[in-house]
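Folded chain entry
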Amino acid sequence: MISGPITGGKHGWAFGRPLFDLAARDYIEEEFFLAGEALTYRPVAGAEWGRDGGWQAERKGTVSFQTRILVYRPADPKRFNGTVVVCWNNVTAGYELFHGESPEILEGGYAYVGASVQRVGVHGFPANPQGLVAWDPQRYGELSVPTDDASYDIYAQIGRAVGPSRDRSGIDPLASLPVKRVIALGASQSASRLATYVNAIHPLGRVFDGFMLQIYFGLGAPLEGDTTIAPAERPAGGRRLRGANLIRELDVPVLIVNSELEAIACHRVRQPDTDRFVTWESAGTTHVPVQTQIVRNKKYEREFGVVPALPPSMNRIALVPYYDAALHHLNRWVDGDAPPPGQPLIEFSGERPDVVRDEHGIAKGGIRLPQADAPVATNSSIPMSADFSGSLRGSNHPFGAAKLDDLYGTETKYLARFEEAARRAVEAGVMLARDVAPAIEEAAQEYRRSRAMPALPTPAPE
């Protein structure tokens, strides 16, 4: 059962909503509640839950739930491109992280659904809960996700509730938009759960027309048991995450979009591209760059009234333009077009293995975004600190004025080199033409920042 649109509450806005008014971009933002019975699953007895990803699941039981979805859709139905993106909201932080206001979404005419499907997102961690219920009990007090075992079916129900065959006899979150395609999106922790959905749940009945796993560490989540743990309990100390399973071949496209950091984890479970599976790996990038952290910090300040610290030396290559290019290709792919263009993978060597780096300390191979191809700093996934957050933020080591002069001579010559690199990225299909001008503007700022800072030594390998 769907109810809404939901309004009011202690704060008067939906948790995690954009930092700007979507109406100014000709979009409508509405929140709805979804309630019902969700299936839970377990592995089929005797079936191997192995590396190949060909997992077999069966129904175990049902639980009652009530959760929320946050919907962005074009105000003018004529602008709708026919695709709904359903984001499995990430709850690693103890509250929901999601981002659906990128240029590709808003300029491309997509509908976007932020899906609250996990217990932590609704109820928070037991210590210092920051989930929806604690954040605004007036608005969200009736919500309940009793166990993550139900998350897979809750997600499927949300996909059906906004899909082409949805029931329109009651409240329609898409306001009668003619939906043609539904894309499933999950990042980081959510990507691990989406991997399990791909390998075990999708074969039981198709809901989604394509999947994008962003910054995915190569580890599918369990079907049973609430596995999201608080930051203090997470592994740190420089230990690497290791990929453990492949993604099975489906009847719909699957695109993995990784930074350098997840490419390291996924090295042991790399698999070749096919007409239904493609992997992208971007050199010089990391899980959480400064641009992403700035947006998260501003939302955190709005929601919780606290200004988080912004580490000065974290990686500074933005991921949103990269994600947007991937979504642009995936949307065409699920509509029957060719797969996204195949891309080189990051180079590794040794038994560990280790990333092969150039004279600037930047990873060789992989997708070459212009910040890696025309660098003013060593951006990498090498962390500045061994704590959990630091392990995701990578590092940025400015070249300094002397090295910039040796490499480029003047700012004008540097920006010309950067623009050439950006055009190459557009030709390769890993950057959209609309993102070139903003990237050049940011590159000028990064050049001046690098000149103003003392040169730092190239970071030691992981």
Observations:
- The longest strand covers residues 57-74.
